[in-house]
Automatic annotation (TrEMBL):
Name the UniProt record assigns to this protein: UDP-glucose 4-epimerase
Domain NAD-dependent epimerase/dehydratase: 5-229
One Pfam family cited in the UniProt record for this chain: Epimerase
Family in the record: Belongs to the NAD(P)-dependent epimerase/dehydratase family.
InterPro entries (alphabetical): Epimerase_deHydtase, NAD(P)-bd_dom_sf
Xref: Gene3D superfamilies: NAD(P)-binding Rossmann-like Domain, UDP-galactose 4-epimerase, domain 1
PANTHER family from the UniProt entry: DTDP-D-GLUCOSE 4,6-DEHYDRATASE-RELATED
Length: 314
């Protein structure tokens, strides 16, 4: 059993991670300001500390909990959509990460695991991007992730804090918000639910590396004991185009969804796929879900509402 802190544990990915840790019998604390996180996402056996990570008191909270492992996921994930525009909260996000790192150092945390993103690569044109490829973010969100990664490496160098940085591909699954920044799958499922046509920006041939949330959880759990001092992709290394995604949705949905094609958005990255050879080697990580299995589970939870009901029965 480990004592874990999950920052952002009331959010989409964090809440699935909390569920998995509790299923393992771990003692789980959540630090979340409930900005986008939701109380109903939180497992009843987890301890919630409602707190903003930019508040220096977060350090005392970490010292008081004295965790073995800290998973740092708290971030304004909606900022991912804010492409080139200035995000006023970037400095607060970086300050928050430094507070958490301070808390980890002061409490002698054995492992710090960070949720980074493919956004650090910007518009890399390669079919399969590796961890060694140059980083060149084209958004404040990507730049902020890169700055946070640098602070983590600095803290590790100065204070010997053991860490793993996981750069996630595009994560989908139940509890993902369906706002514009919520990712295309959440948006499509919400449009299906409302009986609206699926809106496709551009020709639909743009591709993405979609990874199911339970596989991201699997990579995080593997990083507790492996991948020290490394930056590792958490990805499927498979691409799916938006048109292919609609085909898969057709099978899951059981009938033909209506679609409309609109002008491409200038800021959209056309192709993104992260190599996962390093994760296979260092974390022994192999994704368990293919896109169709993940879509089916997400559709059942979000559109048919099965899993939400299960949560209420807990
Ligand atoms: N969803 C994806 O496809 C994806 C891809 C790459 C990386 N990531 C990263 O994974 C992490 C989790 O993303 P998500 O999709 O679950 O987002 P989310 O918005 O669902 O969850 C983020 C959580 O952090 C909390 N939070 C935000 N700012 C905070 C602050 N200042 N103090 C305390 N809590 C705060 C929110 O309330 C929320 O519960 C983020 O760091 C995100 O950048 C996500």
């Amino acid at each position: 059993m480990v004592k874990a802190i999950v920052s952002g544990g009331a959010g989409f990915i964090g809440s699935h991670l909390v569920d998995a840790l509790i299923d393992r019998g771990d003692d789980v604390h959540i630090i979340d300001n409930l900005h986008s996180g939701r109380i109903e996402n939180i497992h009843p056996c987890a301890t919630l500390h409602v707190m903003d990570i930019s508040n220096p008191e977060v350090k005392d909270t970490i010292v008081h909990i004295k965790p073995d492992v800290v998973f740092h996921l708290a971030d304004q994930a909606e900022a991912a959509a804010s492409a080139q525009t200035q995000n006023n909260d970037t400095e607060l996000t970086i300050d928050g990460t430094i507070n958490i790192l301070d808390g980890c150092y002061l409490s002698q945390t054995k492992k710090f695991i960070f949720a980074s993103s493919a956004a650090v690569y910007g518009e890399n044109q390669k079919d399969l991007v590796s961890e060694e490829d140059p980083v060149a973010p084209i958004s404040c969100y990507g730049l902020s992730k890169l700055a946070e990664e640098s602070y983590i490496r600095l803290f590790s160098r100065i204070y010997q804090l053991p860490y793993t940085i996981l750069r996630y591909a595009n994560v989908f699954g139940p509890r993902k918000a369906a706002e514009e920044a919520g990712g295309v799958i959440a948006i499509f499922l919400n449009q299906l639910k409302k009986g609206e046509p699926l809106k496709i920006y551009g020709d639909g041939n743009q591709t993405c590396d979609f990874i199911y949330v339970k596989d991201i959880v699997k990579a995080n759990l593997a990083a507790i004991n492996h991948g020290d001092g490394e930056i590792i992709h958490a990805s499927t290394a498979q691409t799916t185009s938006i048109n292919q995604l609609i085909n898969h949705l057709r099978n899951v949905y059981g009938s033909e969804p209506k679609t409309i094609y609109l002008d491409a958005k200038a800021a959209d990255i056309r192709h993104s796929c992260l190599d996962n050879g390093k994760a296979r080697k260092l974390l022994n990580f192999v994704p368990s879900y293919d896109i169709v299995d993940g879509l089916r589970e997400t559709y059942e939870a979000e559109v048919l509402n099965k899993k939400r009901e299960q949560r209420q029965e807990l």
